Amino acid sequence: MPAKPEVTGFFDSRTWSIQYVVADPETKKCAIIDPVLDYDEKSAATATVHADNILKFIADKGYQVEWILDTHPHADHFSAAAYLKDKTGAPTGIGEKVVEVQKLWKEFYNWPDFPADGSQWDKLFADGEAFKVGNIPAKVMFSPGHTLASITYVIGDAAFVHDTLFMPDSGTARADFPGGSAKVLWKSIQDILALPDDTRVFTGHDYQPGGREPLWESTVAEQKAKNIHMSVYKTESEFVTAREARDKTLAMPKLILHALQINTNAGRLPDPEDNGRRYLKIPLNLLEGAAWGS
User: Fold this and answer.
1) According to the 3-state scheme, what is the secondary structure of the chain?
2) How many domains does one find in the chain?
3) Of 23, 199, 233, 280, which one's alpha carbon is 20 to 30 angstroms from that of 29?
4) Given the DSSP bridges, would you call strands 64-69 and 78-79 parallel, antiparallel or unpaired?
């Protein structure tokens, strides 16, 4: 039987994101997965409320942070990885294909001097690479489709899939971002559904369909039986057709152009300019053909 880590989710209602603390109860060592740095797009204010809440939880539990992990460069929130590294000294990690995302967005933002080599993280994980959280074995699964760089962390009996599968009543993630592919997403989902049926599946977002309370834990068996996409679309072609049609109706995340310049830099904010202020850079008319938001 695989080891069973203690998993605690922290829901951010502003971005519908779930952040995780994954702990080995024996050693009290833990990993933080997909932490959120607070950002208000109306005032351009940043804060560390969610990250500080996680740090307080970890201190109260007596945990020691061993890893700060992101599943991919997020398009809808800023990563708090850099802030948490400063606070804890723990190494940061992400999948090695992040360099492909960096290369794309380096061109989009016209950053000739930006190092698109993944050096902003302490560890770039390869597909199939093993590591540990405390004494609990963990491995990385390359799960592209939503992005070029998306990975799944399988830690003991828990799989952290972020933007691949949502809760069964919400289906699957979009695949129309730069570098995304519904066909590739189908393959990644099949790999996740090939894990043991009792594997716990933890998603990275929950949009609360019907106004229900936030949820983020299911199992592989539940996903296969009840996921509103995967239980209906039985072939790759059916899934790709439906996913691409759905994606054409979706507006881009409101923070995509804000967030990628932070998250391709491992959560680091832009350096202050000569007046001491930091500035974001927004390329106009980059995402041509995207549906307009209301």
Assistant:
1) CCCCCEEEEEEECCCCEEEEEEECCCCCEEEEECCEEEEECCCCEEECHHHHHHHHHHHHHCCEEEEEECCCCCCCCEECHHHHHHHHCCCEEEECCHHHHHHHHHHHCCCCCCCCCCCCCCEEECCCCEEEECCEEEEEEECCCCCCCCEEEEECCEEEEECCECCCCCCECCCCCCCCCHHHHHHHHHHHHCCCCCCEEEECECCCHHHCCCCCEEEHHHHHHHCCCCCCCCCHHHHHHHHHHHHCCCECCCCHHHHHHHHCCCCCCCCCCCCCCCCCCCCCCCCCCCECCC
2) 1
3) 199
4) unpaired
The answer to the question of residue 293 being in a domain is no
10-residue mean pLDDT profile of the chain (294 residues): values are 94 96 98 98 96 98 98 96 98 98 96 97 98 98 96 98 96 94 97 98 96 97 97 95 95 94 97 97 91 78
287 within domain boundaries: no
What separation in angstroms does the CA of 56 have from each of 46, 52, 53, 64, 128? 19, 6, 5, 12, 32
Instruction: Considering only CA atoms, give the Rg of the chain.
Output: 18
CB 33 within 8 A of CB 39: no
Tell me, yes or no, whether 223 lies in a domain. yes
Beta carbons of 92 and 274 less than 8 angstroms apart: no
Q: Which domain holds residue 141?
A: 6-263
The CATH number given to whatever domain includes residue 190 is 3.60.15.10
Instruction: Check residue 294 and give its pLDDT.
Output: 66
pTM of model > 0.85: yes
Q: Which amino acid is at 92?
A: T
